[in-house]
Amino acid sequence: MLATCAETDLRRIIEGIGTPTFVIDARKDRSFRQIGGNQRSTAFFAALSADFSDHCLACLDTGEAVEFDRDFLDDGRARSARITLVPLFDETGGVARLLGTATDVSARRAAEREAQRTRALYQGVLDEQQDLISRFLPDTTLTYVNDAYARLLGVPPEAILGQRFADALTPSDRARVTALFDHLGEKVEGEPIELVNENAVVTPSGEQRWIRWRNVALTDEGGRIVGYQSVGTDITDRKLAEEGMRTAQRSLREVIDSISEGFALYDADDRLVLYNENFAANTPHLDAFDTPTGATFEDILRAGLDSRRLLDGRAIANREAWIAERVAAHRFPPDTPAEQRLADGRHFRVSERRTRDGGVVCIQTDITRLREQEAKIRESERRLKVILDTAADAIITIDGRGTVRDFNKAAEAIFGYLADEVIGRSIEMLMSVDMAAAHQGFIDAHVATGVNRIVGVGREVQGRRSDGKLVDLDLAISAVAGGDSLFTGILRDITDRKRTQAALVESEQRMRLLADSATDIISLHAPDTTMIYVSPSCQAQLGIEPNDMIGRRLEEFVHPDDLPVAELTRSGERVGPAGSAVFRLRHRDGRWLWFESVSGRLEGTRDHGAGILTSMREVTERIRYEQELREASDRLAAQAVELRKLAVDLDVARRIAEQASDAKSQFLAMMSHELRTPMTGVMGMVDLLNGTPLSDEQRGYVRTLGASAGILLTILNDVLDFSKIEAGHLLIEEIDFDLRRIVDDVLHLFSGRAVEKGVTLTADVPADAPGVVRGDPTRLRQVLFNLVGNALKFTETGGIQVRLAGHRTDDADDGVSLRFEVSDSGMGLTEEQRSRLFEAFVQADTTTTRRFGGTGLGLAICKRLVEAMGGEIGVESAPGAGSTFHFTVRLTRGHAEPPPAKPVMTFPAAAKRGVRILLAEDNEVNRLLVVKMLERLGHTATAVEDGQAAVEAARHGGYDMILMDMQMPVLDGASATREIRRLPGAAGRVPIVALTADVASGNRQRHLEAGLDGYFTKPIDWTALASAIDALAGDGDLDGGAGRAEDGGARSPVSAIPVMACADAAPGTDLLVRLPLVDIGRLEELRASIGDSYDLMIQMFPESVREELDTLRAGLLAGDAVTSRRAAHTLKGVAASFGATRIQAIAHMLEDTSHSPEYSAQLLNSLEAALAATLDALNPVA
């Protein structure tokens, strides 16, 4: 509309516009005129310059708006305006007019000018900066660099602007820079991050400079990254300093590592900061740490103790106290260094010092060699003192005043004074008067001038003894450096030597006379080997006059081939088997004769020089005989080779025979053991049958069966013992025993059989015979049992005597030799029978075997046992005149008092009123033993095998007393007692007494607290138990105490009978063998107590013990403490009942399950050995 409206309308419209506006008419001739404008446009329009038309033409030609700025004055003020020309089109589309508007931009232009000035100022500042500043686009195109940046690269800024610096990077550096700029786009808490990197730049001059860049991303108003800015700081000096520091640190490390001592540095917190290789080598327990640095001093100490590489006796005694003491000394090091010892034997001196910053420097010095040298010095001093005290020569040391400081044993012997009587006094007391007068002068001259005319010079002097007599001495003096001692004199008593020298002159005269008359050639050679004397016999032997040989060397007469041997003779060496040499000498007539020469070196004296004395004897015939002998010897050597081959073949055959013998012995031992077990049952049943009602015919059968079983068991015992001996398993004990008691045991055992046969059995032991001896009582008893048993077997009338026929004591080694004789009035033996009587499986004749039975092993075993005890056995006999068997044994004198004789056990009388007793005992042998004993006491006994069964039996009632073992399967004695005490009525109040092998006082109290009325330990004192039964369940009263009241009132418990002292002890396994195997007294008491059941008990003992031993072994292997403890307890009780002392003691030790597995295994092995030995002792050869 503005393009076509009238000018008047146009002006009116323009006047209504608020901004400066004007309209220009575009003429056809491309000229322009203003056709309207408001007042606001007047000042702007007037300011248009001549180039205004150019802007109008541009708008006309392009048909697009045109903008440009113009400065003008408005009322004298400088103003700026932005002119905008917009084309106005007519109906034809042509530009008819131009609409111009003016915008006042004075303020903006002023701001832009200020900004330009500021930029120039900023640019100047940047150009003066030492830091490198650059800006670049995301593709690394540089858009700005300051002068410092350009100077570093040696080019003007414009030469690098617009270039992409990434193009000049290597692929790896380019990838690194790209990754860096990728991270720059990240933000932390809404703010862009700054990344720092360092790299080396090579300047055009070839110099390498290190730059540290701080990089940030540049973003637009929308947060989009439009470029990056990097500010670089030259850190070359710092890098060089760091490199210098690293070099210095490497040098310091090399210096520290080169230190021969161990070096370590701890910080103020006692943490290891730095150490060298020697410290690591001296502290091997550092390998406990992956990274030793950072470990504290205490950590390192503990690692050393844990690894057992660091040794210190105080640490073993009290580890924590030692660690605390050592840490305190480390933190506050003392002035004196500590010492450290490693398990590998090395010693270190540890010196520690505090640093200014509170750390600790540690220096380890290896003093192992020093300690070894000190030990050697101490040993050397000890040896020196021993040498001085044992030296044959007198050694005396004096100081500068002539005072004696040292005086050895030899000096005491020479002078007759003790060292204490001489040391500290003047040496002149030991000198003759003349020598004492001159002595002080020598001392004074030496002290004044240092010149000594006597040191190193030997001379003869006279000394004065304590009795005033003078003695001739050979004196050698040496000066002693250091200390206040001045001289050491070595003196030798030469009184005898001087006397000998006088005799020597006389002897030489006699020897010359002998040499002159000797048939051998005697020659004396000077040190230069020339002969200075030749005896006259050389003329007879060699046809040469002695004077023709004197002054010449012996080698001139020796065969050339024998010169080496002759030279040895000349040198005084001895080369032959008898210290002689053999060589040939030439006779005057040219023959070569063999001579044997013996030479000896003569020591020189003051009057005679050293030399060699030679004696030569002509042995030509002997040499010929020796040659013949060597030829014969060669022939014999060839024969010897054949004999050695034959000996090897014989040895192979011998080994094969020995292996067969071993196999036989092992088989016999196995079969004997396997057969013994069922035989035990057979004999036990025989004893039980004898205790039942039998007809006379049945009793005869049983008697025959028992006798046959006894004979068979004797045969088995003989075979077993012989197989053990043959296999080399015979052991001889060394314990003290009463000799007379052994003889009494033998007589006691066979007295019943002697009475039955009507023969006398006596013993004769002289009053002066030794009482207590040391040896193997079991084996000695076994030999006597066998000999007396045989005598009783073969003697029908008359008598048998056991006699100690002789004894001898050797005070030198406490040895005791004994000779025993067993004489009988039996049938006697022929010479042929005696010759083979001690062979295995041999009897006097076949009729003996048929009549008396047996294996023929008894005497063979006796022979082996006697020989093992250092003696021998024999027999003197004649047919019809009886026999006397004699043997000797070698024992030693005993060191203990003879054990007091045990009183004969009086079994308690039967109770006035029998009571009903319930017995709870898991071991079959103990059950049978106790039941039999209770029946003999007049009581009725019922036995059960465990605590649970005891509770059930007590629940049904009917018992006056319960005897309770404490360790049983299913339910133990203490638990069973508690259960019974909970039963209602009288069943819960029945008296309960413990029968146990547990002697520990703590366990006794614990068991009593379960509700027991009494406590007895095994072996049981039957008299005390009988009294306890009467007191608790019968009509009697124990110790005056009241019985258990109906209201449940407590009764004082019965006192325990302690087990043997040897079982209480806990000796080491090496001491267990010193305990006796069997308490014979206990066995005799048991025999007296249970009568006919004794043999059955003994027969059941091995099987019962082996069963408990198997249970114990299984428990130990499985780690089952309960099972092993219960088995050991039961085994201890069975052993105590039968007097098996050693088994009882070992079982007692095995009850303690706190032992290590290794120690328990040792005890188990000892237990098995003790069982084998005990079974042998309980089954002697009959």
TrEMBL record:
GO molecular function: ATP binding; phosphorelay sensor kinase activity
Pfam family, one: Hpt
Compartments where located: Cell membrane
Modified-residue entries (4-aspartylphosphate), positions: 965
InterPro entries: CheY-like_superfamily, HATPase_C_sf, HATPase_dom, His_kinase_dom, HisK_dim/P_dom, HisK_dim/P_sf, HPT_dom_sf, PAC
Domain PAC: start-end pairs: 64-117, 195-247, 579-631
Membrane topology per record: Multi-pass membrane protein
Residues with the Phosphohistidine modification: 1129
Domain of life: Bacteria
Record domain Response regulatory: where: 916-1033
Key words of the record: ATP-binding, Cell membrane, Coiled coil, Kinase, Membrane, Nucleotide-binding, Phosphoprotein, Transferase, Transmembrane, Transmembrane helix, Two-component regulatory system
GO biological process, one term: regulation of DNA-templated transcription
Domain Histidine kinase: 670-893
Principal cellular location given in the protein's record: membrane
EC number: 2.7.13.3
Domain HPt: 1090-1182
Statement: the UniProt record of this protein carries the keyword Lipid biosynthesis: no
Coiled coil: 363-390
GO cellular component, one term: plasma membrane
Domain PAS: 118-191, 380-426, 507-562
Catalyzed chemical reaction(s): ATP + protein L-histidine = ADP + protein N-phospho-L-histidine
NCBIfam families: sensory_box
Protein name, as recorded: histidine kinase
Organism field: Skermanella stibiiresistens SB22
